[in-house]
Amino acid sequence: MFNTLEDYRGIIGDDVIAGIHAKARRLLGRRVLHVNSTYQGGGVAELLASLVPLTNDAGVDADWRILLGTYDFFDVTKRFHNALQGGTVELDERALEFYEETNRAFAGWAQLDRDVVIVHDPQPLPLIRYFKKRQPWVWRCHIDLSDPDPRLWHYLKGFILRYDVMLVSHPDYLHEDLPVPQRIVHPAIDPLAAKNIALDDEELARILARENIPLDKPLMTQVSRFDPWKDPLGVVEVFKKVREEVDCRLVLCGSMASDDPEGFVIYEQVAQSARELIDSGDVIVIAKDSPSLFINALQRVSSVILQKSTREGFGLTVAEAMWKGKPVVASHVGGIPLQITHGKTGFLVDPRDLDDVARVVIELLRDPELRDTIGAQAREAVREKFLITRLLSDYLDVLNDVL
Ligand code: UDP
Asked: Does residue 195 belong to any structural domain of this protein?
């Protein structure tokens, strides 16, 4: 069952709802298509699952198509992802051909004849080359673009130049060398989605018992794909330091996104580095597509949430935990500082300074009052800036601009 805008009145107030309808007025009946490359397992899928039905409810026809790719295709695009985030990449001709060919093949049987096409991330970026362009195209990049590999950026720019506007999550991701209009749009969470909806104690206990999560010790948790940029290995190292001072458990929960073939490799490394702790039950590693209600419950029962990323386009998991009134200890990278005010709505740390990360976690585990104060402030910060209704409103602004 989908939510309607009315359902959000109690959370964000009538003014916001009226504002959305006002912005949708000029767009009523126009047709918008979002294209990405996975239906689950990452922030983009999470966003679209809420944004698309709510856009429809506002009277603008929205639809969502998924670019189909093989393992080899996603192997190439994950290498792109890594190189855009500051890593390096071998740009061999075969990989580029494969990237373009997958997009060309998809264009051979997909119909994208809407009033606006919004393409998410690099996987479907080249589609624009294989359609007769009859409408505005928007490229929404969710990745940290502050320091991309120059050769890859030059190559991808060839496609981006065809777009009407590029949307990014942070001012640092804007590019002066790109002669295309650029705007900032922050991601947001859906407070009424299964991932974030309120759960009572009975539901919490039932959901967690089903997944065998013991609640006898405080939990520190990181919910993230098994991705080098999320640094799950670093989280294990922090945990080893924390448990020297406070008896607690670590939960590392990561799904395997179908467009991220690196997951299995990183998971293996984590399992290796925490083998004894996993055997003793002090570290729980969950590597599967968990139901949203489980992620929700896990975030709610955790004492501290970690997000120890070394790069992070935005980091929806941070807002998700903050909305649940949880203290988040997260790296001062990418989109995370947009969400957390250090010492007020969470804690920003240097992800390389394991001692400091551990120190902050220990302080929080020892001080329930501090956890409650930070958590309450965190929830209000998300209500103000990072709820899905604000994102819908931002997208309507973009549509009003390009149409
Ligand atoms: N997520 C999930 N199950 C997992 C791990 C992550 O449902 O095991 C969700 C998480 O709750 C969040 C999204 O995937 O909604 C991750 O978004 P984020 O922006 O944090 O990172 P991304 O994966 O897009 O880099």
From this structure: no
CA of residue 46 to ligand 1 center, whole Å: 8
pLDDT for residue 1 is more than 70: no
C-alpha to C-alpha distance for 345 and 274, rounded to whole angstroms: 30
Same domain, yes or no: 212 and 171:
no
Distance from C-alpha of 247 to C-alpha of 270, rounded to nearest angstrom: 21
Residue 290 has phi, psi (to 5 degrees) of: -80, 145
The finding on whether 314 has its CB within 6 A of some atom of ligand 1 is yes
- pLDDT, tens only, 298-337: 999 999 999 999 999 999 999 999 999 999 999 999 999 9
Kindly state whether residue 254 falls inside one of the protein's structural domains.
Answer: yes
167 & 30 share domain: yes
For residue 327, how far is its CA from the centre of ligand 1 (angstroms)?
18
Shared domain for 14 and 96, answered yes or no, is yes
| CA 161 to mean position of chain CA atoms | 25
Rg (CA), the chain: 21
Instruction: Say if residue 42's pLDDT is above 70.
Output: yes
Angle at 333 between CA 263 and CA 227, to 5 degrees: 5
The total number of structural domains that make up the chain: 2
Provide the domain limits for residue 21. Answer: 5-188+387-402
Nearest to 218 by CA among 319, 375, 367: 367
For atom 3 of ligand 1, the residue with the nearest CA is 255
Q: Is 290 in the pocket of ligand 1 (CB under 6 A)?
A: yes
Mutate to test the pocket of ligand 1, among 295, 333, 336, 387 (most ligand atoms within 8 A of CB): 295
CATH classification at residue 73: 3.40.50.2000
